[in-house]
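Researcher: Quick test of sequence recovery. Tokens follow.
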């Protein structure tokens, strides 16, 4: 249910003052990163993030934001210079939100990551893996 997704994302973002602290007014929200399982492990997720960040820089966005619902997305984003600013373990709000965490494969922690955008830091970190 998309309503639950939006409520979880609102909880994840609650209390963060990242954008006020960074004094930005243009935020590139990278909402969903999906690669079909037949194409896993080919670097397509990384390429999607890279191209999205490049487009954000070209369009004048100051910060990119991602709500990562799995550890793979968080790892890809971290490799591209994003940093975690908030996290929420869904098991702590499952009853309140009506979430069956048994249906979630893998990690139940969702993370909010951000990256300040400019031409120098829009490329992935070659030291990360």
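Model:
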């Amino acid at each position: 249910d998309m309503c639950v997704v939006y409520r979880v994302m609102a909880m994840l973002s609650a209390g963060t003052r990242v954008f006020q602290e960074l004094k930005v007014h243009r935020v590139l929200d990278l909402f969903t990163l999906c690669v079909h399982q037949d194409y896993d492990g080919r670097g397509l997720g990384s390429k999607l993030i890279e191209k999205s960040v490049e487009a954000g820089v070209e369009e004048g966005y100051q910060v990119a934001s991602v709500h990562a619902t799995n550890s793979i997305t968080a790892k890809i984003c971290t490799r591209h210079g994003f940093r975690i600013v908030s996290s929420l373990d869904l098991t702590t709000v499952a009853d309140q939100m009506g979430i069956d965490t048994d249906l979630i494969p893998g990690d139940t922690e969702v993370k909010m990551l951000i990256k300040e955008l400019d031409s120098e830091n829009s490329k992935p970190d070659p030291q990360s893996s």
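Helices lie at 2-13, 18-22, 44-58, 71-79, 94-97.
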